[in-house]
Input
Amino acid sequence: MTEDTKEKVKEVFKSDMKTAEGMNNLVEFHTREDIAESSVEVVEELIQKIEDPMRKKCIFATCYQIGQSINNPQLSNFAAENLKKFTEEGNEGE
Output
């Protein structure tokens, strides 16, 4: 393990904690239905603008996490099906 690797890992965790705070605020002030509908719309908009397969995969992974956080199986399934397509197409981002 290098110091650079350790610092990069810390950055990822810090980013994840900020995301968790944002999710908590989102759930506190918005309905789960509105969050699910908005998530699908935002994902569809972002996917059209992104070319990098790894970034697309991250978008669907975030969508999946949101679906899990709001206990919305339809949103989670939407994201999981799209993540599966990346695996089947060999776009794992590696």
The radius of gyration is 15 Å. The longest helix spans residues 3-29.
